[in-house]
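During the reporting period the student researcher (J.K.) took over the structure-prediction task from the postdoctoral fellow and processed the backlog of single-chain submissions. One of the processed entries is reproduced below for the supervisory committee.
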Amino acid sequence: MDQTSKVWDGKAWVSKPPLYWDGQGWMSAAPPAREFAAFAGSNRANYKETRYAGLPVPAGVRVGDFVVSICASMKGFATLVSPAGYLPQVVLSPNDEMSFAVACWPYTGREGDVVWDLGDSPQAACMNLLYRGGDVTNQSVTPVSDMQVYKAVDEVPLMPSRDFTSVFVALTVSRQVSSYSWPEGVLPRDAVVGRFGSYEISAFAADTPGAGASLGSLRLNTSTDAAAMYLVTIPGKSDGKPTWILGDAASALGSTTCLQ
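J.K. obtained the following structure tokens:
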């Protein structure tokens, strides 16, 4: 008679017990890092005349997922209150009409709501994005790898994407932005659109695998007073193989390219 201790893993009794609960199931080891982390969820909110902005980690989060939390404010700069121990990268716009703060960390299962201190900013737009399969051993304290600022535009150009998953975050300051369109080849993820008629920040997020060339511009339905585009890179683990991205003119399909 088999006397080996066994554990129910949700589907069957197994002799080797899993080590931890990742938020969705029991795991015996962390999944391997991928070259391009996959989008796994998001949430967002608009805040006005409040000191603190609180937003939960998106539903469905798993241990090891990269949480990308952004906060765009109209005055001063936001500071991260919770979770503790993570230092956000803060980028001040040269026109002083908005600032951009982003914190990126691998979820451990212990973090609760993400809370930003907005200081005396009259309005802010916040967003949390989840990416699965990133390389936690290669994370950076400065995830913003590029930034461009514009005035009086109805199109916000995308800078060339880089290695791994490239997340584009666009900010606009306007009273009338109500619709937008990302270029082909970029996957829209989430948006916080300011209230129509109020002078507020709107935030738009999209991503693409790193390709090395610009894919076009974010088109808006009206001209904005100020706009900025930020490039946030989610670290991955290169497999050493060339990458061909469908529809990307800068990505060449050669005889040695491996399609998966």
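The committee noted the following: The first strand starts at residue 7 and ends at 8.
J.K. will present the remaining backlog at the next meeting.
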